[in-house]
Amino acid sequence: MPDISKQAAPCGAWTSPISAAVVAAGATPLSQLLLDGADVYWLAGRASEGGRNTLLRRRAGQTMELTPAPFNVRTRVHEYGGGALLAAGGTVWFSHFADNRVYRIDGDGAPVALDGAAAAAAGPAATRHADFVLDAARARLVSVREDHAAGGAYPVNTLCALGFDGSEAVLVEGNDFYSSPRLSPDGSQLAWLCWDHPRMPWQGTELWLADVGADGTLINGRLVAGGADESICQPEWSPAGILHFVSDRSGWWNIYRFAHGVTHAVCERAAEFAGPHWTFGNAMYGFRSEREIVCTYIEDGVSHLARLDTASGALTPIDNPYQEIKELRVVGDTLALLAGAPTIALELACIDLRDASREVLARSIEDLPDVGYLSVPRSVSYPSADGRVAHAFYYAPQNRDQEAPKGELPPLMVIGHGGPTSMATSTLKLATQFWTSRGIAVLDVNYGGSTGFGRAYRDLLRGQWGVVDVEDCVAGARYLADQGLVDRERLVIRGGSAGGLTTLCALAFHDVFKAGASYYGVSDLAGLDADSHKFESRYNEYLIAPKPQAAAVYAARSPVNHADKLARPMIFFQGLDDKVVPPPQSEVMVDALRVRGVPVAYLTLAGEGHGFRKADSIVRTLEAELVFYLRVFGIPVPAGLPPVEIEHLAG
């Protein structure tokens, strides 16, 4: 029955307070949560200060900024960084992005470079550091080091002892990549992860353990777990010095312990207690005591929070309002976490484990729209190609003031996440609500290859990027149309970069979507290899094909070689300074549509690279994309939106 309190208006043209400018204002990035006794530390992005990360500390109810401008707490190890700071005993060590140096803060004092002010003034260091652990007895940190001094095609990665005086000494070398050095509570042993090309860490890593000699070097190194087809994550020591870690040997990232030379499962469950290692320093479990772990795990794409009895393996839920928990830390009875939900933007909260009381310390978005304009997604699973089942979050149109005219079904926008080894989550995103509050449904797809659904699902993308992801997006659109939830004549798909590849392939190789938007989309797969950094330089061997077979597969899957098959209206957005996906990758597709008389719009943005960061660029592209769909589908364009030139579009 129609809601008599709402006005009827065409889907796509509803009036919404979630404007493009509101979306462009964005959220404050919150990351890299740490606990040091009762003190809580975290990083917050400062968009108004060039996007730098600053370190905040919460102590005795007061929040203090410890790194004023120009300090930028960020590292570029593996390019994606993470693990840029350590706090222990009231002292903080952090990596400064501008010069790659490690700085120390004692108490409320000013940051001081470990290697001295004179060295810091000499210019950027050739080494980068991340994922610090304190070795107080030896007056040093242990870190992952990336050495660019040789100036070769790729840097050299090692585990490094970084003295409080700034001295550096290699502890472990020989592997292509390292992460997660963890010192035992008594300082006698060091555990770490390593892996080699062509593997990515979610394919296969090794967990090693060594004794720390009297001179601080490592001796008696031995392999504990892992290999080419087992992904190990987050090694941690219990308070009593028992090594724990997460492994996907069962097909799911579960928690294990290594004691007396034997590995035992702590909790066997068809759930994910870890995520893909794109960045350093992530934590999804921590010890409250020797007997109790506090953990988050993902089932069906949704996070859960629980106590884990290390003896029985029993999980006891902890009441909380969140559906995505990105990371957590535990000290005693205090649990700190970064989390969100469909009506909660990412926030930092502390939970008292004694009574489950919760205090929010920081929010990524302070002023949220009225809940009447927010669409709460529901998880959907649906049949896809070759008998598999795909997963997604479905957002129905939602607006407290307006609704569709009787008998009108909404358009559907399908989105494929980036990565592609990643996942869509249900945490509130204003960029999604921009569409749903205007009467356009959204399907955020966790296609085969996404994380959060086990190893077998993650490996569906092995050799199948550009195939499985596309099939699952196509199947999701068909499924919702068959359910009578959306208008099958107004199905659109959008994506950026890797998601742009999915968009272009869906429109070139399938006839389901009626329009599409490509944001700096990959149209030529071969170009990705030429521009990749060390960490991802062999990623395509997993996603597409090993080198000997790659050329033929690249040619078959690259939309640039099938531009003649594009027959639906498209809009392209391209930064003119993009070095990863340069303008010609978009231009060749635009030209193909022009030649064939297919409606096409092309917006270029000066001063933008791979990903749009300027507020006016975000406003311009969002509004242009909206106008494009409205005109393609013959929906009246509301006043105040800018004109968009669409070639070959009648009327």
UniProtKB/TrEMBL annotation:
One of its GO terms (molecular function) is serine-type peptidase activity. The lineage of its organism: Bacteria, Pseudomonadati, Pseudomonadota, Betaproteobacteria, Burkholderiales. Gene3D superfamilies: alpha/beta hydrolase, TolB, C-terminal domain. It comes from Massilia forsythiae. This is S9 family peptidase. It comes from the Bacteria. GO terms for biological process: proteolysis. Residues 430-634 form the Peptidase S9 prolyl oligopeptidase catalytic domain.
